[in-house]
Design brief:
The structure holds 2 protein chains of 2 kinds. By secondary structure, chain A is an alpha/beta fold. Chain A is built from 7 helices and 17 strands. Chain A has helices at residues 84-91, 126-137, 157-164, 181-186, 200-212, 253-259, 296-301; strands at 7-17, 22-29, 42-50, 53-60, 71-76, 97-101, 104-105, 115-121, 142-148, 168-172, 192-197, 220-223, 234-238, 243-247, 278-288, 304-305, 311-319. Chain B has a domain at 20-25 and 38-240 and 264-288. Chain B is globular, with a radius of gyration of 20 Å. Classes of the chains: A alpha/beta, B alpha+beta.
Chain lengths: 321, 346
């Protein structure tokens, strides 16, 4: 059976510029009913119909899980990406009808934690907006450390400070403020769980430091969605469906497979959940693996690929799809 | 119209019976004349009218009697219902799910009124009319999971999902086929399945776990499992083995039809929205052999399945002692004729 999610028919109820880079989008159900309840850390996949192209990108829900009249997501404009964020920023206006997935949570709170220690970098703040709202409503113990480039790009820093006071600490790159990670990770009470969401470099830094300080791996949680990277076009043969497709420069392999009418299962579209894992039947060329799902061994073997984020350069690629 | 709830017992004088309509809706678990494990999971979607799948949470004529039996079990042994401290939120998720589904499927028996956090729940068969604040444990007579599962047929396990595994961290288990929540509480998926024979070698649990951890909100799944029980006893727990274990020595050629019951579990799997946990309702259906063989197809097929069951499975399901007597009795109802494909009666 398919492991995809159920879809929701929504209408854009508001579009709010937050700062120079970030815009917030509000969705309500077209039928006026409440949206499904969700848990802090969940994302939805937004379907963007841009002419004859469809992009599907995941975004964390950032509203309070206690309020399901609307869903909100915040998107940072990426001027060199594949165009999903530009489409949202430029073309999505209030009143537009869109389709989003049911919420899926791959970055769940561990509710056993005595304390939740959260580290956010940049737009990585969004899942923590929902998680802190959920925990605050239930009297939960949390502390959020949020790094941003400048005060004016500190998306929602003011909102978070107002809601949660001293439980939120801010660090501004332009003022050379840095998290004293060593001290922070060394001074937590037993039973603390660590959550990190931000750029890959930050996630790697925090995970490595936590490991070297003896944090058990099951207490360290991270959200590591890789956006699909653009790249040179390449051709792929889909052996099961008997189709040959071309993956465009701004298209992911998964999107190209879908455009050909083949629907592999997916959840995250960011190289994390493992749903779209695809066997390689034969290849002559070089894989560009960008996922966090396959092992290094899998990557070296050339037998598997995650089409949501990974690409290929070379003469021929035949996939079991 | 509504359901006519039977007055009956699952202990002592064992007056449990199925009405003729309930015999025909019994979820017979064999779609062919042999049985072996498989990952037999399918989407839990609404099925035909008049089947146990007509509603995703089924309420039937045994509802009131089953809830009375559950109350008796809990009075003797409160540890049948346990919830680790981090599972309260999941308990509220389950309360919402069961109230919504029961009110949706059986509006003549159950009503849920929601006014923000202020909820009113009316359960007419059990004479309950409570108003409470969703999320505030102090406004209910029990914790949310215990409150609603004292009013819902079947056992319920709530599984916490973390570290790529599922953990049995809460449950209400009083109608179980010889396993114990008190023993399994806090275990992960592989730990609590350790006693099952053959399936590990087939890699079934690894695949099943992968599937279950990817269950999505709004897309529940289900499977059937089965065993047999002597006397229509819901509570066949290890804790009470001394009460029901010896029953297996009481089967004779004369009483097979009345004493031996096929016990089918309709297991479903649901993602819980607030806690991101999974709830695993295990709904037990019993049918005595005399009732089952009123459907000739089922009589033939059950004979062939039990006769040919691998020894390990027969042992695991606790049939060894009375299997020859049962097979002999069933063989007289098997004319070697063909059986039609599918589960249902002809």
């Amino acid at each position: 059976m398919s492991t995809g999610t159920t879809k929701l028919d929504v209408v854009v109820s508001d579009v709010v510029p937050v700062n120079d880079l970030v815009t917030r989008f509000h969705f309500r159900r077209r039928d006026g009913e409440l949206l499904p309840t969700f848990s802090g850390g969940a994302h939805v996949v937004v379907e963007m119909r841009d002419g004859d192209r469809t992009r599907l990108n995941p975004y964390s829900l950032m509203g309070s899980p206690l309020d399901t009249r609307e869903y909100t997501i915040s998107i940072r404009r990426d001027d060199v990406g594949r165009g999903g964020s530009l489409f949202m920023h430029r073309q999505v206006k209030p009143g537009l009808e869109m389709v989003i997935s049911y919420p899926v949570n791959l970055f769940s709170l561990d509710l056993r934690a005595r304390k939740h220690l959260m580290l956010a970098g940049g737009i990585g703040i969004t899942p923590f907006m929902a998680q802190t709202a959920q925990l605050a409503g239930a009297g939960g113990n949390f502390e959020l450390h949020y790094t941003c480039r400048t005060a004016s790009l500190g998306t929602y820093a003011d909102v978070l400070r107002e809601r949660h006071g001293n439980r939120v600490r801010l660090y501004h790159d332009d003022r050379e403020e840095r998290i004293d990670l060593e001290r922070l990770l060394s001074s937590q009470p037993l039973g603390t769980h660590l959550y990190v969401c931000g750029p890959a470099g930050m996630i790697n830094w925090v995970r490595a430091r936590a490991a070297s300080l003896g944090w058990p791996p099951e207490t360290v949680h991270f959200e590591h969605f890789a956006a699909p990277q653009p790249g040179a076009p390449f051709d792929v043969e889909l052996a099961v469906s008997g189709k040959t497709i071309r993956v465009g420069e701004q298209q992911s392999l998964l999107e190209a497979i879908e455009a050909a009418g083949v629907d592999p299962p997916y959840l995250c579209r960011g190289g994390v959940c493992g749903q779209c894992e695809t066997n390689v039947i034969s290849s002559d060329g070089k894989f560009i693996h960008n996922d966090h799902w396959l092992s290094e061994e899998d990557h070296r073997s050339g037998c598997k690929i995650m089409p949501c984020v990974s690409r290929f350069e070379g003469k021929s690629l035949v996939l079991e799809r | 119209m509504g359901i006519t709830f039977r007055k009956e017992t699952f202990r002592d004088d064992f007056t449990f019976k199925n009405s003729p309509e309930h015999i025909r809706r019994f979820p017979f678990p064999f779609n062919e004349d042999a049985y072996m494990y498989a990952v037999n999971i399918e989407p839990h979607v609404v099925g035909p009218k008049g089947s146990v799948l007509e509603n995703l949470i089924d309420v039937d004529e045994h509802y009131v009697a089953e809830m009375q039996d559950r109350a008796l079990v809990l009075a003797e042994d409160p540890l049948r219902c346990q919830s680790l401290p981090h599972m309260t939120l999941a308990g509220w998720d389950l309360l919402e799910l069961l109230m919504e589904q029961q009110a949706l499927g059986y509006p003549e028996h159950f009503t849920l009124e929601r006014n923000g956090d202020r909820w009113r729940w009316i359960n007419r068969p059990l004479g309950i009319d409570d108003t409470f604040t969703f999320g505030d444990v102090s406004t209910l007579p029990y914790g949310p999971m215990e409150y609603i599962t004292r009013q819902s047929q079947g056992d319920f396990c709530i599984l916490d999902q973390r570290d790529g595994n599922l953990w049995m961290d809460a449950g209400m288990v009083t109608t179980q086929a010889d396993w114990s929540l008190d023993f399994d509480i806090g275990m992960n998926f592989f730990e609590w399945h350790a006693p099952v024979p053959l399936a590990h070698e087939k890699g079934i649990f690894t695949r099943a776990l992968k599937f279950l951890t990817n269950i999505q909100q709004g897309k529940p799944a289900r499977r059937l499992n089965w065993t047999m029980t002597v006397n229509p006893r819901l509570d066949t727990s290890p804790e009470n083995y001394h009460k029901w274990g010896p029953d297996r020595a009481t089967v004779t050629p004369e009483n097979v039809g009345d004493k031996v019951h096929l016990r089918v579990e309709l297991q479903s799997f649901w993602r819980l929205p607030r806690s991101n946990g999974i709830v695993f309702p295990i709904r037990c259906y019993l049918i005595k052999m005399d009732e089952l063989v009123t459907q000739p197809k089922w009589a033939r097929r059950l004979h062939r399945v039990i006769r040919d069951l691998p020894e390990e499975l027969a042992t695991y399901k606790g049939l060894t002692r009375y299997r020859p007597t049962l097979v002999e009795w069933l063989s007289k109802l098997d004319d070697d004729g063909p059986t039609s494909p599918g589960f249902g009666p002809d």
